[in-house]
Amino acid sequence: MTRLASALDPNGAEYAANREAMLAKLAELDTEHAKALAGGGEKYVARHRARGKLLARERVELLLDSDTPFLELSPLAAWGSDYPVGASVVTGIGVVEGVECLISANDPTVRGGASNPWTLKKCLRAHEIARANRLPVISLVESGGADLPSQKEIFIPGGAMFRDLTRLSAASIPTIAVVFGNSTAGGAYIPGMSDHVIMVKERSKVFLGGPPLVKMATGEESDDESLGGAEMHARASGLADHLALDERDAIRQARRVVARLNWRKAHPDPGPAEPPAHDPEELLGIVPGDLKVPFDPREVIARIVDASDFDEFKPLYGPSLATGWATLHGYPIGVLANAQGVLFSAESQKAAQFIQLANQRDIPLLFLHNTTGYMVGREYEQGGIIKHGAMMINAVSNSRVPHLSVLIGASYGAGHYGMCGRAYDPRFLFAWPSAKSAVMGPGQLAGVLSIVARQSAAAKGQPYDEDADAALRAMVEQQIESESLPLFLSGRLYDDGVIDPRDTRTVLGLCLSALHTAPVEGARGGFGVFRM
């Protein structure tokens, strides 16, 4: 066994400072997560309960098998926007009757569960995860449809919601809709395009147009029940496959539907695995509060992989990128982890070869980000950093094994691309509270703008205003700093969630289990032209 040793000193001042900085960030994160858990607030939660209804997360909890985890996705969606944190919908992966499923649940305490632009983005991301990993989809529906004031942003792209459901079904991925309340207008197509539909007696209301709209459009007088009630759909229209007596009965019936799917994973679970030899609690003290200070990513690897066992690939070549083989919860993985921040030509070529090897062996890849990007400067440009960086990005782009990405430190510039950032379709991407991501560091970006402005003034023969320059630099640094932080990026769904470092192994294990529902197959050639 090639067990990683650790040089971390949990009793040292550096560790204590790093841990304190991380705990402060986690406290801030907990505050923002609490906003999502609060839904529409006490008033609307109380009103919902007074109607005898369960909250969105309560419905999810009852749906799941007892004592099984729920990996919530994008809980901070819409953070920093004009819409409530969480985007009025809960999405995640959980186990139902032994089957890993993608679950979405409208939160009716937030504007009646109406969908805003961030709801749409969050749901489309959930569908993307379901499709890539072949996870059955269970929609817990209670929504008044589109949030009408934002219709210009949601109506046209919103059609993708229904397209996705039909494509999932066409790919033989089961889709199940459980309707607890309103599912009106476009929302009626969620049950309409699902394989299995369960409705609750005297609660579910599914129609393209409610009584007021029908009156305006046709002059017809109608009521909710005859127009779109659960019993009507069970007896007359046939839209409801199952009629439930109440919410708990609907959830029970949904579990029975899943039990009868005859669903099988492409790869069996590997069984119990040996935990890391080093304490995951110590992950709190590894990443410095100042990301300019380097740290060894092997300290992270040693606390997330099975038995801390890691076979490093090319350890003496391209040392600022650690690559190697391990298992995590019994699943084989290849790991690429930035060691000293900057990616040089050697690191880029090493990564491209390693990615090709993983594809030959059908082994998923885990990218641990802490990079300031590819190296710049005359020496490195002449040495071919562009073509070597392009080689790494080419390999990442055309790799076919599943990718997992975790931003643990910096993730700047094209290094973000080479390490499989969001645009490169990782199956899952999470961030630690310590992470930052932008086109470059705030100081660098402000400095570049200052240099350009200074050169422009000199070319025109004009004096340069140093006070204005200082003010500009401060403003730009503050803007880029705020836009590079995890809460901002997670709010825009550039990751699937900001996680506690101590949960990294568990989160990655859940992801690996989910992605092995689908076949894991690498590319055999087909990497395009590598410029040598």
TrEMBL record:
Positions of the CoA carboxyltransferase C-terminal domain: 279-522
Domain of life: Bacteria
Ranges where the CoA carboxyltransferase N-terminal domain occurs: 22-273
UniProt GO molecular function: ligase activity
Xref: SUPFAM superfamilies: ClpP/crotonase
Membrane-traversing stretches: none
Pfam families recorded: Carboxyl_trans (PF01039)
InterPro entries the record matches: AcCoA_carboxyl_beta (IPR034733), ClpP/crotonase-like_dom_sf (IPR029045), COA_CT_C (IPR011763), COA_CT_N (IPR011762), MCCB/AccD1-like (IPR045190)
Protein name: Acetyl/propionyl CoA carboxylase subunit beta
Organism of origin: Streptomyces sparsogenes DSM 40356
